[in-house]
Design goal:
Elements (H helix, E strand, L loop, with lengths): L1 E5 L6 H15 L3 E6 L13 E5 L13 H16 L3 E5 L1 H16 L7 E5 L2 H4 L8 H10 L2 E4 L2 H10 L7 E2 L7 H4 L5 H7 L5 E7 L7 H12 L4 E7 L4 H10 L6 E5 L4 H5 L4 E4 L8 H8 L4 E4 L4 H4 L6 E4 L4 H12 L2 H16 L3 H19 L1
Parallel strand pairs: 1-2, 1-4, 2-3, 4-5, 5-6, 6-7, 8-9, 8-11, 9-10, 11-12, 12-13
């Protein structure tokens, strides 16, 4: 198949998932064309069957805000026509699905039939869905997509709750690429650099937005460090970082908390960690938790959204109500103080992550693509 993938190129979950999906499809022999305003951060253009098409927005004095959706539409028309794509797979509803719909109609006027799939990832539904100004467009483009997928049952339910959807949505979960973890070796020196005296290592990875409740991460850590030697690694960056750093100073905990910023290969950091903290107020899936579990790291998390579909309470980690830092700290200490229990949870976390192996999820997308192409004929 000759597939066009439209995604955001950033470190965020939807962009990473779309990129890894495209790479896996290319590995299986499909031609994959990435279409975005920048090269996705995890995309290797030297890989066979992978192509990148930049959406370049020119600046005009007439516009206060550049019309990216229209430029993307034109780019999709161009790539479909001249690269002879079989289908488009757009990740994130706004503006990708609406651009794909417009491109589809333009191409139809030229006698070209191109189906498109919309994959919903989360904030396009749970955040933008609450904004009335976006609702008509999101509702329309979801209903007009040739196929729609959501990354969790929770997100599927949210979509039906927030929008007037009159079509089926198939749940195809996010996935993990274990090959990235198999490459990691000789981590002893790295772990010792962060925990020179054998301290336990907690880790949190996010974009530091308010919905991630990163303050709770630090509060949990503060409770734990009063009982056992422990260090905290904060991976990522975002609007809450300055405030979090101020809290660390107030708690006199700066020596025990390391801010690592945006890290491209988070697998290496996860591989030296003991527990992963995910304190979000809302998560449509919880990809960061899955990545931790793939590194054999148990997860202490909230029980919101799609997280319980990934982190199984009492098996791969523990779930608590949003904001209950005392319970999350208690659960963390339960594992950190019992070596045998901790090893059991490590094993369980890895086994649970295996259920989301990309080679188990990829065929579901291929089956969906093939079903659309049969309809196209």
């Amino acid at each position: 198949m000759n597939i066009g993938i439209v995604c955001y190129p950033t470190f965020g979950g939807s962009g990473v998932v779309a990129t890894e999906l495209g790479k896996a499809l290319a590995f299986k022999g499909h031609k994959v064309h990435f279409i975005s305003y920048q090269q996705p951060v995890k995309l290797d253009l030297f890989s066979e069957n992978i192509f990148y098409h930049e959406v370049k927005v020119s600046e005009y004095p007439l516009f206060d805000y550049q019309p990216y959706e229209l430029v993307l539409t034109s780019k999709l028309v161009d790539v479909v026509r001249f690269e002879k794509l079989d289908l488009l797979h757009v990740h994130y509803a706004i503006p990708h699905a609406s651009a794909a719909y417009m491109a589809q109609k333009i191409l139809a006027s030229k006698g070209i039939n191109i189906p498109f799939i919309t994959t919903l990832h989360g904030t396009d539904i749970t955040l933008l869905g609450k904004d009335a100004s976006f609702e008509p467009v999101i509702t329309f483009t979801i209903n007009e997509s040739n196929a729609v997928t959501a990354v969790s049952e929770s997100l599927k339910k949210d979509t039906y709750r927030h929008f007037r959807i009159n079509r089926d949505i198939e749940v195809i979960p996010n996935f993990i690429c274990f090959n990235e973890y198999k490459k990691i070796k000789n981590t002893e020196a790295l772990k010792k650099s962060f925990a020179p005296n054998g301290e336990k290592l907690l880790v949190h990875v996010s974009n530091f937005r308010p919905v991630k409740r990163v303050f709770d991460v630090v509060k949990i850590f503060d409770i734990i460090r009063k009982q056992i030697p422990v260090k905290l690694l904060m991976v990522g960056d975002g609007p809450e970082r300055h405030s979090i750093e101020e809290l660390c100073r107030e708690l006199n905990a700066c020596d025990s908390i390391k801010f690592l910023g945006k890290v491209r290969d988070t697998e290496r950091i996860l591989s030296i960690s003991d527990l992963f903290l995910l304190t979000s107020e809302s998560e449509s899936f919880g990809l960061a938790a899955l990545e931790a579990m793939a590194a054999k790291v148990p997860v202490i998390s909230t029980n919101t959204g799609g997280i319980p579909e990934v982190n199984i309470h009492g098996v791969s980690g523990f779930l608590s109500n949003v904001g209950d830092v005392d319970d999350m700290a208690k659960n963390a200490l339960t594992l950190l103080k019992d070596e045998n229990l901790f090893k059991k949870f490590q094993k369980n976390a890895f086994q649970q992550a295996q259920t989301f192996n990309i080679f188990k999820v990829l065929p579901k997308y291929e089956e969906l693509y093939e079903s659309l192409l049969k309809q196209k004929i």
